[in-house]
């Protein structure tokens, strides 16, 4: 009995010591948070809602009420100016809207992607997600090696060769829309363009035919959406995985990440074996990357993992952003019949009745390019980017210390009156060849060395799909349509862009 009393007393004292240590650690953390506050409090910004959690409660409340966090960022930019700060525990985010600073930081290779976002995208809830791929790598040499391997797969010469695949996949969408028009049923345009863009990336990047427009049972669209939902929750709520009510969804996200990575492993290994055996293989992006990697002198096991990271990046970013741009574009054309009419006239003049749109035809569709650019101005599907400062910088007379995470938001700057007159007006003439070009306030594909590698690919694909759609059909939004935006890290139309579709009279085939 005395022994049990001794053990109990010892355990009680150990527990008491643990509580004291925990309290002391928390006290030290609070001192550190206070130090961070003092270090950055000279930068303007909205009042912290919580001393410890900073502005995080505002984000959580906005998301819970189905609002758009980026509109909150826009409101603060208009109130606090070219630079303002936000606090999240001991993290500080410094929003920068100054074009000169955008140019200075984004056009340089010395500012890495920020550590906080890298950590949250490297893995989700313990399952590797984007890892150290092109979109997330912080180490410049590591990133540059990957870029060197992948660059040939996105050369202008190779992109020219993809026009046929873009046409073929877009034709499948036209066939689907023709059936919808004949049946006089409604077209869920966001869902349809999501499937066709995923079909395209799987075909041109990985040589697979999955017929996603017809086979709605395949798990990939659902897996991508689950990953995107997990991504936004993982980056904006650091405590999300700790709450028991979220555990079921956390497991769904982990399973979706695992599905994409296991699919990538299988497809990459199968292609490597085919190349080694001398079999005929598609001349797609995957083949190009494997061949380029084979020319590198030092390929490690880690480099193989990076290839898988980039598979997941292409799989998601290669279709999600293009699909959302197409859906927003369709929505705005339906809201502005005079713009649609002008775009249709240009398509009629350039394309006529042709089914096969050539690479040279795309260059002649100048007004359609303006429409697509204006769509990305108001709805940048990838709304911003971030960098970590390696040295102090001065923004609009305000010193921003080294180590800060700088956020650059194309969504915010593109919707500000100081950069664009009547910013919420959909006006493709802003991007007329003779109009002045926006000065570092419009960057839907980011800027500089870390700009999106696939932007030319994405715009070629979007132009082919939109040209065929405008050539064949008239479309109108169903009554009661929502024009709100849904935030999944990428931006998409919340209402799904539900349309009625009718054949154009001169093109009924």
Describe the 3D structure:
- The protein is an alpha+beta fold.
- The protein has helices at 2-40, 56-64, 69-80, 99-106, 115-122, 140-150, 156-161, 163-183, 189-206, 220-236, 247-276, 285-294, 301-335, 337-350, 359-364, 366-378, 410-414, 455-472, and strands at residues 83-88, 91-96, 123-124, 127-128, 186-188, 384-388, 393-395, 398-400, 405-409, 473-477, 485-488, 490-493, 498-503.
- The chain has a single domain (35-503), classed as Cytochrome p450 (Orthogonal Bundle).
- Helix 8 (163-183) packs antiparallel against helix 9 (189-206), helix 14 runs antiparallel to helix 16 (366-378) and helix 14 packs across helix 18 (455-472).
- The mean pLDDT is 87.
- 55% of the residues lie in helices and 11% in strands.
- The termini are far apart.
- The strands form five sheets. A four-stranded mixed sheet has the order 1-2-9-6, with helices on both faces.
């Amino acid at each position: 009995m005395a022994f049990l009393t001794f053990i109990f007393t010892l355990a009680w004292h150990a527990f008491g010591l643990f509580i004291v240590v925990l309290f002391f650690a928390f006290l030290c953390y609070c001192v550190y948070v206070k130090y961070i506050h003092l270090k950055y409090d000279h930068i303007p910004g909205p009042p912290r809602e919580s001393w410890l959690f900073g502005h995080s409660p505002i984000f959580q409340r906005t998301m819970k009420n189905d609002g758009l966090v980026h509109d909150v960022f826009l409101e603060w930019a208009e109130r606090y100016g070219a630079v303002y700060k936000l606090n999240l525990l001991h993290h500080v985010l410094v929003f920068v809207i100054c074009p000169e600073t955008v140019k200075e930081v984004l056009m340089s290779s010395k500012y890495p992607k920020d550590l906080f976002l890298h950590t949250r995208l490297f893995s989700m809830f313990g399952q590797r997600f984007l890892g150290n791929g092109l979109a997330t790598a912080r180490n410049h040499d590591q990133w540059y090696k990957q870029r060197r391997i992948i660059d040939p797969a996105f050369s202008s010469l190779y992109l020219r060769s993809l026009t046929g695949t873009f046409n073929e996949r877009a034709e499948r969408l036209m066939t689907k829309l023709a059936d919808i028009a004949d049946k006089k049923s409604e077209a869920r345009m966001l869902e349809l363009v999501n499937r066709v863009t995923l079909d395209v990336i799987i075909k041109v990047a990985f040589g697979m035919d999955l017929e996603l427009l017809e086979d709605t049972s395949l798990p990939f669209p659902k897996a991508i959406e689950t990953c995107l939902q997990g991504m936004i929750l993982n980056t904006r709520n650091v405590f999300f995985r700790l709450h028991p009510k979220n555990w079921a969804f956390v497991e769904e996200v982990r399973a979706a990440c695992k599905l994409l990575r296991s699919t990538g492993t299988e497809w990459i290994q199968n292609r490597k074996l085919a190349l080694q055996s001398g079999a005929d293989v598609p001349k797609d992006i995957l083949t190009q990357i494997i061949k380029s990697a084979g020319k590198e002198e030092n390929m490690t096991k880690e480099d193989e993992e990076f290839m898988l990271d980039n598979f997941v990046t292409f799989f998601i970013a290669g279709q999600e952003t293009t699909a959302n741009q197409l859906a927003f574009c369709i929505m705005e054309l339906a809201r502005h019949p005079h713009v649609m009419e002008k775009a249709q006239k240009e398509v009629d003049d350039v394309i006529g009745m042709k089914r096969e749109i050539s690479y040279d035809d795309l260059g002649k569709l100048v007004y359609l390019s303006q429409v697509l650019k204006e769509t990305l101005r108001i709805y940048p599907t990838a709304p911003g980017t971030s960098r970590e400062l390696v040295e102090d910088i001065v923004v609009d007379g305000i010193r921003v210390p080294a180590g800060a995470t700088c956020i650059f938001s194309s969504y915010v700057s593109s919707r500000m009156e100081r950069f664009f007159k009547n910013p919420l007006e959909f006006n493709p003439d802003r991007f007329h060849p003779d109009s002045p070009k926006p000065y570092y306030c419009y960057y839907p594909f980011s800027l500089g060395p870390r700009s999106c590698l696939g932007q030319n690919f994405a715009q070629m694909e979007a132009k082919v799909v939109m040209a065929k759609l405008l050539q064949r059909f008239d479309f109108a939004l169903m009554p009661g349509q929502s024009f709100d935006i849904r935030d999944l890290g990428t931006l998409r139309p919340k209402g799904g862009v539900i349309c009625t579709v009718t054949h154009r009279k001169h093109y009924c085939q």
